[in-house]
Amino acid sequence: MTTPLLFTPLDMRGVRFKNRIVVSPMCQYLAVEGRIQDWHRGHHARFALGGVGAAIVEATGVTREGRITWGCTGLYDDAHVPGMREIVEIYHAQGALAGVQIGHAGRKASTARPWEGAGPLEPGGPEQAWETIAPSAIPARPGWHTPRAMEAADFERVREGFRAATHRALAAGFDFVEIHGAHGYLLHTFFSALSNRRTDAYGGDLAGRMRFLLEVAETVRSVWPEEKPVFYRATATDDAEGGITLDDTIALARELKARGVDVMDCSSGGIITGVANAQPAAPPKPGHQVHLAAGVRRGADMTTMAVGLIVDPHQAEEILQAGDADLIAIARELMADPNWPLHAAKALCVEDPYAVLPEPYAFYLRRRGEVSYRPAPAQRT
Predict the structure, then answer these.
(1) Residues in the chain with pLDDT < 70?
(2) Locate the NADH:flavin oxidoreductase/NADH oxidase N-terminal domain: which residues (predicted)?
């Protein structure tokens, strides 16, 4: 019996993904001063026991002011390392790899948690607002706080934040890191002409707008061991006139690959600017971003990860079989069904689907399959 690609190992540098199912970063907004809490341990244990091949810890601030909300995780202090190490150990205990997404929220920092409205924090509130930075002084949305345009000292502070966070990710034992360059956060706003109006070396043409992204990638790669991969999460298209196109992202992917980045994790949207030509994207459909991963994979000859409403195992397998991506990232579907890998293995007719689970689960579930469960006949009265 041929093993489906979804359950075929993938070797990358010095690590092995036991299957192609990756937990996509999912912000939980429940950290305390950047530190992992019991919630995070339980959140990740569900996925580890469910049989995923790897997982990426949520968007994690490289500086304190680079967090999205007060509840976001951080790697800007040595005190964050022990909690992160616990998450790594949860995955390693089940033979899965662990990664962490490191980034800076830029002009989308200093906001409330989603269930508290997700708007900008106000001065004097229970959780104080803080100053935000961006390539240009353009608010993320009409009526939001205006970020301060970055100066030379800001560039150095952010680069140092990425460098130090990468060191701490290594100390925590992560197998790979993912640089967050998507969803309207700092690196994305440098890349998009809709949010970057600079006239110096970090703005203007495509080469200028990608300059800071590449400097960050070089910083991370210089710290991260050669035998461990680096991922890059990209908004591959802004879905807006004058914004990032897939061709722009392919050009970026080539430059990132030349600097030692191994995988592009392809997303879209997030550059909400309030300008007249920023049109909302069409309602998403299952697999609505797969074509972006496929475009980068073929155009830049780069390993890619597909993400975005991938919910059906056959859909995931078809993406891999078509050569559109090498890894499949899943988020909300795993929240709803942390045993998705088992159900995928059954749907794709893996010879022993229970082998994706830890042995105590696999042993008892195999035995359960030997028993025919039927409701007892109704008793006559």
Answers:
(1) 1, 273-282, 369-381
(2) 6-348
> Is beta strand 10-12 parallel, antiparallel or unpaired with respect to 15-17?
antiparallel
pLDDT for the residue 276: 42
pLDDT at residue 277, rounded to an integer: 47
Which residues contact residue 362 at a Cβ distance below 8 angstroms, ignoring those fewer than 6 apart?
Answer: 354, 355
How far is Cα 267 from Cα 238, in angstroms, rounded to an integer?
Answer: 10
Tally the C-alpha atoms within 13 A of residue 156's C-alpha that lie toward its C-beta.
3
DSSP 102: E
CA angle 341, 237, 165 (to 5 degrees): 65
> From CA 136, how far away is CA 156, in angstroms rounded?
17
C-beta atoms surrounding 381 within 10 Å: 3
Does the pTM surpass 0.85? The reply is: yes
> Burial level of 166, CB count in 10 A (0-12/13-18/19+)?
buried
The neighbouring-strand residues paired with 21 are: 328
Amino acid at 336: A
Domains, the chain, ordered by start: 5-363 (3.20.20.70)
Q: Quote the pLDDT of residue 371.
A: 46
Residue partners of 320: CB distance under 8 A and separation at least 6? 5, 6, 20, 326, 328
Outline where the chain has alpha helix (H): 38-50, 81-92, 152-172, 186-191, 206-223, 246-258, 290-299, 313-321, 332-336, 340-347, 359-368
Number of helices and strands in the chain (H, E): 11, 12
**Cα 288 off chain centre by:** 17
First to last CA, the chain: 52
Best CA proximity match to 263, nearest among 6, 9, 12, 7: 12
Task: Tell me the two tokens of residue 242.
Answer: 């004058």
For the annotated catalytic residues, the residue numbers are 185
DSSP letters, 252-270, are HHHHHHHTT--EEEEE---
